[in-house]
Amino acid sequence: MRLIVGSDSAPYMHTRQAFLTALVALAGYWIARLGLQPLKQLSKEAQALRPKTLSQRLQLAALPVELSALAEAFNGALSRLEEIYRQLEAFNADVAHELRTPLANLIGSTQVALSRQRSAGEFQEVLQANLEDLERVRSIVNDMLFLARADRGEVATGLVLTPVTQEVRKTIEFFEFVLDESGSQVGITGDVQAEARLESALFRRAMSNLLQNAIEHSLPGAQITVTLREEAAATWIVVSNPGAAIDEQHLQHLFDRFYRVDAARNDGGEHHGHGLGLAIVKAVASMHGGQVSASSEGGVNTFGFSVAH
Q1: Separation between Cα atoms, residue 119 and residue 300, nearest integer Å
Q2: Ramachandran assignment for 245, one of left (phi > 0), alpha (psi -120 to 50 degrees), beta (any other)
Q3: What is the spatial distance between Cα 251 and Cα 253, in angstroms, rounded to a whole number?
Q4: CB under 8 Å to 280, separation ≥6 — which residues?
Q5: What is the pTM (predicted TM-score) of this model?
Q6: How many CA atoms, within 13 angstroms, populate the side-chain half-sphere of residue 175?
Q7: What is the pLDDT of residues 83-111, one digit of tens each?
Q8: Is the domain 49-154 a CATH 1.10.287 member?
Q9: Between the CA of residue 56 and those of 51, 65, 80, 121, what are the distances in Å?
Q10: Any idea where the domains of the chain sit in the sequence?
Q11: For the domain 160-308, what is the CATH code?
Q12: What residues form DSSP beta bridges with 188?
């Protein structure tokens, strides 16, 4: 006699499958939660960043290899953002300082003029002094607007193939009176036959700033040299003048806005402009696809810019 006992295993298998599915889902959730924990920590640290705490950086020590590269890239972006933010704060302070002096002069002289009865001649003297301060304010505003356009990526238009020496000579002629007064001379050397595609107005503006900088920081009777140098992809225009040595730490910042080697000259005096001359040279070079350079060796200070071919 054979006894056979059977039962339907379908419900069992169904229950087992459901249990395994739940177990796998629970394990997957736990693994995913554990794996995302470093990412959540990064997100929390990033959300805690504020403009005043940009010096903070994401912690890399406890991160897995997969996230380390991302965190390093983010920290690099933070470093660049911090530098830009610091420059912006300094820039705003410098602009306020440069505008404050002429505005204070205008208000003060006007208040004094109105404090009592004055003749027409006295009022004329006050207006003449106020006009000089107003022209200074206008110059600062115009320079700032020009630099703002350059920052937005504006490039030189109407480029014309021009002999560079010709443009340099025209700029030197503009300074003829100043050169005669100081007894200084300007000579041109190098590749005097060099030609480049220029927007003349922009080129002369940059050239004027370099010459003015050289004249102001040279002793009377100095010999100033303009050197033209052709390279594979650019033409360099370099102005050299004898002067006090400039420390290496300052050279890389000389083309920054409002930067001065001597902080004591921050009064924006009559002979030192308002600290935007070399920044404009850099902007003009950028608009022509070029670069700028500065060096100080052997008692000679050299500043230059290039224009791309």
Answers
A1: 52
A2: beta
A3: 5
A4: 143, 146, 147, 205, 206, 209
A5: 0.69
A6: 23
A7: 777 777 777 777 787 788 888 889 998 99
A8: yes
A9: 10, 21, 13, 61
A10: 49-154, 160-308
A11: 3.30.565.10
A12: 226
